Amino acid sequence: ETWSGGSAWRQARRSRPRNLVGAVLGAARRSGRGRLTMLLPLLVLAAQAVHVALAPSPSIRARAASARSALRLALPPEEETGPVLVVGSINIDLYAKLREDRLSFGGSPPVDVMPVKGMTLPAASFVEKLDEAGIGGAAAASDPISLVQSIDGPFVQKTGGKGANAAAAAGQTAACEFIGNLGRASSEANTALLADMQQFGGVNTEGCSELEGPTGTAYILQFEDNDNAIVLVGGANQDWPGLASLLGGNEGSGLRAAIGRSSAVMLQREVPDHVNVAVAQCAAALGKDVFMDVGGTDSPLDPALLPYLGVVAPNESELTFITGVETKGPDGKPELQRVRAAVAALKDSCRAAGNPSVEVLVTFGGEGSLHFGAGWDGAGEAAADGALPLECRMGSFVLGTADGRPVDTTGAGDCFRGSYVAARYADGKGVAESLRWAAAAASLACEVEGAMASMPDRASICERLEGPMVGAPPASPGAPAPQAEMPAGLQPASAWGIGEVSPDASLVQRVEGKSRKTWRFSDLSRERVQVAVSSVGRPVHADIQLWLGPDWTPYTLRAYSEDGKRRPVQTLVGTRCKAAMVEVRNLGESEFPFAAAANYAKDPMASLPIELPASTPGERVDGGALRSFALDPAAGQVEVVLLTDGRQLNARVELLVGPNNPKQSYEVFTNNGELNSLCVAFDTPDAGATVRVVNHAPVEFPCYIHVRERRV
Hints:
By secondary structure, the chain is of the alpha+beta class. The protein contains 19 helices and 36 strands. The strands form seven sheets. Strands 20, 21, 23, 26, 28, 29, 31, 34 and 36 form a nine-stranded mixed β-sheet that branches. An eight-stranded mixed β-sheet has the order 7-1-12-13-14-15-16-17, with helices on both faces. Helix 15 runs antiparallel to helix 16 (431-445). It is elongated and about 90 Å long. The two termini are 50 Å apart.
């Protein structure tokens, strides 16, 4: 208990996936504290493993969390992430263009198939929808596969399947491994399928199996507006070993090994439910995040899955399927309050199954997406865009087609989800950055015909990120309208955000609670680094340090924000034109991860710590004194520079809303407040804010504060 810090034993915390043995030995080697350091982590692991094996526990997930918590402090703070693992379907896609949104079977008169537009359904569910339209009858219901196979062409054949598409999309962002089944009766097509997965995503398919019978088939029905409906004939996708074999038998050994080396596991529902249950159980036991794409069927989620899911990702129609709560209004469009009610129902079901921390990611096609965080409960004050706390909204990117319309939406949802999983779990991006990355990828997928062939590469996604965005998920009826032009005299907002620090998101890292990330800088001609930290609406408590050499830390900044989405941490750090390293440490608990990025600042940001004092009047703050500055209610951002005449700087600057109600603060210490002045920005979404500075230094060490208000 003394060695581990005690609290790690008492609280089960989710942690990033790790190779346990390698991590423990690596930590021991790096620490240089001899044989005792090597023995203690191994003893911790052994003792806790015995405890977990013998103690009663409500679920595998709870036991795994308990074991992981005991190991947290025995592991190094940074590690290599494994590939994204996708377990699911791979299909031969047959595309058919509809005329006037109607479809014919075996030469019969065409029928309206609008009721299934935008849906992905197995053959039996598709036939049920057609029965509602007055066709099919008892014969069709008794043999739905035969009816589907009689759909009149012509067809164009391509590679697809929700699992394979998502894997190809993930593979464009990070390393990806796919496990699925193919049928020997389709051997010629199988060669093309696997070749496409290698070509369009570099996906590792060594874990795939070839079984008797045909490979799965998907009939892609393309409407005149290029939206689609997808009808599935399972084939080999439905032929898997039983639950016990997957969890403990030889047939499941390769699958279990792949889960163990992954960074996260992605599932969907074009395979039998017991496959998803087995994979989710194993993944949760190994500490891997489980992402559930609920597409592929219109049935409710298997209750056996609920304890193990980290993220559930439906579109608005699928959200209704799995909850029974209607998400669309009388006009057929999704309504935010209905969507929230459905999400609340889903979270209640997961909570009742022992999983209170599930996240929900709802997509709305061209209108964007809406993420509900683990602690979301539908309460709290709405932001200007109508979003509640722990809701993260993302629009969609403008398409680059001649008419601004999609060429083919097939696979766009798979592309979005696969790209999101890779960005968040393999690349370590935050929720908002991952949503934006996925939105860029999905927009590019809509511009190319076909599913897998449309998955964009990383360079194209980075380029699209610089383009304009439109649309948003459904807004609250009472959401405030955009603000009018701000009064004259205030300056436009500067480029402080995490998106400006790393436009292609390549420098953005996810920092878990009680861990750290570093960025190295070696250009001696540049003297300023820009750092940004944000969260999905949770508190941010960070320590930002400048390292010059192995044992000199001339600058330390402790930052706190009550809400890292509304008030992100934004600062500039002087490197003194030396080779440097910037460390960002998350001082919060494991439940409060955040995203951070650091990069060399570019003008005008690089010169801001000099330009702002030169262009604004300053005020002297003697040691032990404080000063307050009331902000213009129209200001959306305020920049602050705090400096000295070369003496030490030891001060705190904070943003107050109301009397003695700090919303955000920065506490700085440096041995030279001229070479390393404090330069920060506060976003001020609330009117009536005040900036207050407190000089903690002795009276003989005054500092000088310069404040500039800006509009957003």
